[in-house]
Design a protein that fits this description.
Arc Repressor Mutant, subunit A; 0% strand; single chain; mainly alpha; elongated
Length: 152
């Protein structure tokens, strides 16, 4: 019986990733999605995705490019959030939201650039101090004036 012991092979088109699949894998992996999750989303075996991420130099280059692009996007978001801080917003609840957006974006930017995110709280505190520097003397003067009014 001819063909009984032959191994059924997957068609070549299904074995190899096409360019659109490579792009999708690169973008999702750069964004922090796991290879297992990516495999589920694109309908591929997780081993195929893992091997591609580990061994495909073209894919690694795409991932690096997307990481840089995402890092730049998060940096711009952090700058916009800090730049939008005004005296009125700093006096209200929305300042908290802007600082959270700035901090999260800054953290994501560093993550996508392969930099440490360990000491972000210290860095963000410095950024908040910088953003509020213009208020500095004016705010202290107002606080001292209020204290003097309550003491008298």
């Amino acid at each position: 019986m001819e063909g009984e012991n032959t191994v059924k092979k997957t068609p070549a088109k299904q074995r190899h990733l096409d360019d659109s699949e490579r792009n999708e894998i690169a973008y999702k992996y750069a964004a922090g999605i796991t290879p297992t999750r990516i495999a589920l989303e694109i309908g591929r075996d997780k081993g195929t995705v893992i091997n591609a991420v580990r061994n495909d130099e073209q894919l690694k280059t795409l991932i690096d490019g997307y990481r840089e692009e995402l890092g730049e996007m998060f940096e711009q978001t952090a700058r916009r959030a800090l730049g939008a801080l005004t005296d009125a917003k700093l006096d209200g609840a929305s300042a908290r939201d802007l600082i959270i957006v700035a901090g999260t974006s800054y953290d994501k930017m560093r993550l996508h650039r392969g930099q440490s995110t360990e000491n972000i709280a210290v860095i963000m505190a410095s950024a908040v101090v910088e953003a509020t520097k213009q208020r500095g003397d004016k705010e202290l003067t107002c606080q001292r004036s209020e204290q003097n009014d309550t003491e008298n």
